[in-house]
Design a protein that fits this description.
Blueprint (H helix, E strand, L loop, with lengths): L2 H6 L4 H9 L3 H10 L1 H7 L1 E2 L2 E2 L1 H14 L7
Antiparallel strand pairs: 1-2
Helix pairs in contact: 2-3, 4-5
Amino acid sequence: MTNIKLGVFKMSLKKLCLDCQSGDTFALEILVLRFHPLLIKVSIKYGAFDEDCYQECAIAVIKSINKFQIR
């Protein structure tokens, strides 16, 4: 990864959410990647990874971003 790509992982969640709410699709991608480990964790059902669950959780994260009131 280049320094620019590594730098976006250091962006604050507040900045990423604000950028997402402004329509920045790259910020949305980074935000989902930041939550990837948590999405994996909640998508393991009965000891196996459930891809449908992962996808539904990722969609829920994406849909909920615009509902956040960030100050």
